[in-house]
């Protein structure tokens, strides 16, 4: 074996020994939320945008092409909708934490990144918000 071949193959061998993670995401989910710390924000729902990005450890080996083998987009969206619909929260940070906590119940989810943005707060800004990253303990 020549040196060039050894250099090309060696990194692949090291990577395969590591745990492989798959990124599963939902982009730009727009929902109405009871959110805000100010009195005027309690009068009516506000539009928010939620982005979910999960790093998931899936079963090793060949895919069986079965929904049960993956973290479902439906499950992710349902979790976000349920938490957003559960009642008033003051802060985007609180909402993001609750969503991340729910998504991390699935032990296959190793890292959850959640972004929550209010869309109609400032005329000069498309959105304001927060993004958090939480890891499985």
UniProtKB/TrEMBL annotation:
GO cellular component terms attached to this protein's record: cytoplasm
Family recorded in the similarity comment: Belongs to the DHNA family.
Alphabetically ordered keywords of this record: Folate biosynthesis, Lyase
Domain of life: Bacteria
Residues annotated as domain Dihydroneopterin aldolase/epimerase: 24-134
Iron found in the keyword field: no
Keyword field contains Methyltransferase: no
Protein name per UniProt: 7,8-dihydroneopterin aldolase
The reaction(s) this protein catalyses: 7,8-dihydroneopterin = 6-hydroxymethyl-7,8-dihydropterin + glycolaldehyde
E.C. code: 4.1.2.25
Function (record text): Catalyzes the conversion of 7,8-dihydroneopterin to 6-hydroxymethyl-7,8-dihydropterin.
PANTHER family the UniProt entry points to: DIHYDRONEOPTERIN ALDOLASE 1-RELATED
Gene Ontology terms: biological process: folic acid biosynthetic process; tetrahydrofolate biosynthetic process
Family matches, as InterPro entries: Dihydroneopterin_aldolase, FolB_dom, GTP-CH-I_C/QueF
GO terms, molecular function: dihydroneopterin aldolase activity
One Pfam family this sequence matches: FolB
């Amino acid at each position: 074996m020549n040196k060039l071949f050894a250099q090309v193959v060696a990194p692949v061998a090291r990577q395969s020994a590591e745990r492989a993670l798959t990124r599963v995401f939902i982009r730009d989910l727009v929902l109405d939320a009871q959110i805000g710390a100010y009195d005027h924000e309690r009068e009516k729902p506000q539009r928010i945008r939620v982005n979910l990005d999960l790093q998931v450890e899936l079963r090793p080996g060949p895919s069986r092409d079965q929904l049960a083998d993956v973290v479902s987009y439906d499950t992710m969206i349902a979790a976000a909708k349920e938490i957003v619909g559960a009642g008033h929260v003051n802060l985007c940070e609180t909402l993001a934490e609750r969503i991340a906590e729910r998504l991390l119940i699935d032990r296959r989810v190793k890292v959850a990144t959640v972004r929550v943005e209010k869309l109609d707060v400032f005329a000069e800004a498309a959105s304001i918000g927060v993004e958090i990253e939480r890891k499985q303990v």
